[in-house]
Amino acid sequence: MKYRAYVGALVGVVLASEVDAHGMAPANGWQVNFFTHANSIQREEGTSKREEFTLGESTLFVATTLGERWSAITEITYQPKLYRDDTVKVERLQLRYELNDEQYFVIGKIHTPMNYWNDTYHHGRVFFPTIYRPLAFERFIPIHDIGLRWGGRGIGEQDLFFDLVLGSGITAESEHEFFGNGINSTTASVGFYPLEDWTLQVGYYSDTLIDHETLPGHQMHATPMPNNMGQDLDFELFAFSSQFENGKFRALTELSVNRTEDSDWNYSIFQYGAYKVDPDLALYAYYDMTSVDDSGLHFAVGEEIRTGVGVSYFFATTAVVKVELIDHENDILPDSKDGLELRMQIAVGF
Amino acid sequence: MKRGFGLWSLGAVFGQTMIAWLLCFAVPESAAAADLYIVAAKQSDVQLEALDVDGIITGKQRKWANGAPIVVVLPSKDAAQFKAVGDHWFNGSGTAMQRHWLRLVFSGRANVPIYAKTDAEVLAILDQTAGAVGIINEPPPESYQLLSVID
Hints:
Chain A is mainly beta.
């Protein structure tokens, strides 16, 4: 109910002010955008075939400058009950203060600045390089955190950037009890531009998964928990990103390794490459994989791989159609299935 | 695990057909030849030789040397220099310029830009907005600071 009131108030403010809600900001510095997408899927797994049409998240994005040093972003998503229990979610709600010409503070609900993808792409699918997010976000990498972020951009000749976040962690975010368990997570990342078109970034995340078996990301244990272990697990993750993009080519590499206490390392690989035929049309391919070691205590053991080829075409400024042919291999119990999928997505923004 | 040959072949034919169809319609935008004047309000401490105009227009540089934020005024779709700006900085596409800036704003890496339709509107915004930089088609009046000329 509180989300409905929030959205209603926000819409009221927007309508009452002189805001151009069709994409571009007027002189008072407000920007309001709406994004949505839909998918058409044909899937073949073993001997079964499935066709479906799904409605994706709809996203209301509001950005505003509140003065010389203050700005704010909020991002709210909606998806029908058919697809998820929380129909309305506040994905981001952040207030930013420019400390000086290079550094800033942000407080609120943010995307964890773990890697290039999560720090760049919000919930509108228009600008995603691929239809799916990398698998690592479905299993390992927390998309959101709530806390205080200190960051810097454009430092030195090679545009060094950094972020440090103290947050409430995965457990609090999943339970919507912000800081109910105090500060549990730490995120640190640093990067720079070796060349104007090329970014390198490394990130580190640590957290305590409180009552880990109750968390949405938990999957059945491969082995029973040792008797002397509680339900809280320490978790850490390292990430590496390399993003290159010029007028004709794009390459994005996202790697990560992670582990919970008393288990060995799990890892993920996402490699994407694209050729831009023109500013609106791109051909691309990607390899996306997650792997959990046999000693896994939180994530289900096994490998999941997606390999895809696709076409992306912007038929308007913020309207894109993507078509992908995806080979999916999955040996993670209990839903281990291999399959082939033809997926088309239309994503639009207003 | 068996693969469905039917779906593979359907996908291959569909994919090739889509690519061929899209390539037929992928006509690159032609560049509109025009002089572009990058202007700002008069500032006593702007060092022109150290100015990264490309960085300002593409959002990489967000602050003036004195730490004040740069407000970028970009041409709207109806502006005469919309295509020329896209051609020079954004791989030949004004819509690519808009998408580029949208991506920056959504990721929190840039402040919201302002879009203007005419040179007069750009200059009016420079008068009203501290730290603003705009792009116009004609040489600016002397009361404004000319940062760069693109021809």
